[in-house]
Design a protein that fits this description.
This protein has 275 residues and is of the alpha/beta class. It starts with 11 loop residues before the first helix and ends with a helix. The strands form 2 sheets. Strands 5-4-3-2-1-10-11-12 form an 8-stranded mixed beta sheet, sandwiched between helices. Strands 6-7-9-8 form a 4-stranded antiparallel beta sheet, with helices on one face. It is built from 9 helices and 12 strands.
């Protein structure tokens, strides 16, 4: 990645966020989604793996900033495994906030902390097979949440739309919410989202600037959290790992890069600029 140029954010707020990060990297928080941001989207989520350049770029960047937080809807241990984050020199400043922040894994200690699972998840898990029969969907059991993927169906978008109402009714009945994403509807407990997770972690470490990169609807709360931090005086940079499936992030981002490959190039360029 030697010689990679840092792209210029399209907005004034984004340029201020990047300038502050570069001026005071020891106070900077780098927040990143996993699927679609550090890892390419694949038909089978169990086979998702971080881009080959992601860990080297993160290992080069992490020692130069206050912290790197991977914030994901996946269980933390799954993101750690699929990301290849464990035992990597240079990643001591990395944490994985799984299940939207309900779980936390610290690279420095290798320890995972997690609360008890919401009882509604087991109830939903038991009822889903009857509701989804013949739909061509695939169910991913995340332990603390259940995700219904439509990407393998004959008409993924049509099945996605047809399931929104019945899955929302099922989730509501058991005290859960539905989080829509790229050809996926996730049924999970309320109260935590990527915005809450990012805000709480930024407050914990006393972040002086925040970069957040994401690609999907579940990342919008993190975008709003960065907006709120900026409004209160903490500069921030919103990065979109570009996709044609979700346009909302692209429209709100300060900087759009070309998927996980573009994210990795950005992380590498930041590490290089910070020496």
């Amino acid at each position: 990645m030697s010689g990679t140029m840092l792209p210029t954010p399209a907005t004034k707020a984004g340029r201020e966020g990047l300038d502050t990060l570069l001026a005071r990297p020891g106070k900077a928080l780098i927040g990143l989604d996993f699927d679609g941001t550090l890892a390419p989207i694949v038909a089978d989520p169990e086979k998702a793996r971080a881009h080959p350049g992601a860990v080297p770029a993160l290992a080069a960047l992490a020692p130069k900033v206050a912290a790197v937080a991977v914030i994901t809807g996946r269980p933390a241990e799954v993101a750690v495994r699929n990301g290849g984050f464990a035992g990597v020199p240079g990643l001591e400043h990395l944490v994985v906030l799984g299940h939207y922040g309900a779980e936390r894994w610290d690279a420095r200690s290798g320890e995972l902390s997690a609360p008890e699972s919401h009882p509604g998840v087991a109830a939903v898990r038991a009822e889903l097979p009857g509701l989804l029969e013949g739909s061509g969907t695939w169910v991913e059991d995340k332990g603390r949440a259940v995700a219904v993927h439509t990407r393998r169906a004959a008409d993924p978008q049509a099945v996605f739309e047809s399931l929104r109402e019945p899955l929302t009714a099922l989730a509501t009945r058991h005290g859960l919410i539905v989080e829509p994403g790229r050809m996926v509807l996730e049924l999970r407990p309320p109260g935590m989202d990527k915005g809450v997770a990012l805000s709480e972690f930024a407050r914990e470490i006393g972040a002086g600037s925040v970069l957040y990169g994401g690609d999907d609807l579940g990342d919008l709360p993190a975008y709003s959290a960065v907006d709120a931090l900026r409004a209160s005086g903490t500069p921030g940079l919103l990065v979109c790992s570009g996709s044609d499936e979700v346009t909302e992030l692209r429209e709100r981002a300060d900087l759009v890069v070309d998927g996980p490959e573009g994210v990795v190039a950005l992380l590498g360029a930041l590490a290089e600029r910070l020496g």
